[in-house]
Structures are given as C-alpha cells and as structure tokens.
Amino acid sequence: MSTIQNIGEKIRVLRLQKGLSQEQLALHAGLNTSYLGQVERGEKNPTIKTLDKIACGLDTSIESLIASSEQRNSSSKDKNAVLTVLTSDDLRQLIIDTIKNNVPDSHSGFSKCNDDK
User: Fold this and answer.
1) 73 or 49: whose pLDDT is higher?
2) Contact between residue 27 and residue 58 where contact means Cβ atoms under 8 Å apart
3) What number of other Cβ atoms are within 10 A of residue 37's Cβ?
4) Of the residues 8, 17, 24, 28, which has the maximum number of CB atoms within 10 A of its CB?
5) Comparing C-alpha atoms, which of 3, 5, 35 is closest to residue 22?
6) How far is the C-alpha of 56 from the C-alpha of 27, rounded, in Å?
7) DSSP label at 20?
C-alpha cells in the first residue's frame, strides 16, 4: 500500500471512529465530498493545506494522519520510558502543562481551524 493510500485509509478510519459521513467531514473541512472520497481511496495526493483542513475536520493533527504505525509505536515507547522515571510530582506538573498548552481558551471561538476560511 502506498503512502497516499495509507493516509487515505487513516482518514477513513478516523472519520468512521468519529461517526462522520464523508459528506459531514467534507462540510467540516470545506472540501468537495467526491474529492474527499478520492483522497480516502488514495486516488488523489492532497496538499498540506488540504490535510490540515481534513485534520481540523477530524479534530486531530496532520501528524496523526501522516505518521506511520512504526513511528507511532516508537513514540509511544519513548513516552512510556519517560513516564517510568518521573515522580508523581513530575507527572502531575507534566499533566498540568499539557492541559494548559492543549486546551483552547473558551474565549477563542470555535477553533483555530476556522481561522483560515
């Protein structure tokens, strides 16, 4: 399976996990439904901008769409190795910092994904 097909398959799997139809995701991402279907089938090579729109529509990152399963497994192993050496205070601070850096302000509107439209 080619990289483009792998990306398309990841998009399809994430879309189905979120309970979205192609039409719903296309609407959220500001794309044509038939184009999204072609991307999911690996028939089109989407631009980074298009992948960003799709990632926003799926409430995920571009990295999650393009990272191979080997890269994700390696990353998980690295994270687990770090967590085993952290104290509970370190872990608590890491969780607080992660939440502060990743939870949007309630004043920021719908999402950063809509800023480009």
Assistant:
1) 49
2) no
3) 16
4) 8
5) 35
6) 11
7) -
Same domain, 18 and 38: yes
Within 8 A by CB and 6+ apart from 48, the residues are: 62
Q: Note down the domain range covering 108.
A: 69-116
Residue position matching structure tokens 């205070």: 89
Q: What is the pLDDT of residues 83-113, one digit of tens each?
A: 666 666 776 777 777 777 776 654 444 445 6
For residue 33 the two structure tokens come to 């439904």
pLDDT digits (tens, 9 = 90+) for 10-62: 999 999 999 999 999 999 999 999 999 999 999 999 999 999 999 999 999 99
77 and 58 in one domain? no
Whether the model pTM is above 0.70: no
Whether residues 98 and 53 fall in one domain: no
**Tokens representing 100?**
């502060």
* Euclidean distance between CA atoms 53 and 113, whole angstroms: 7
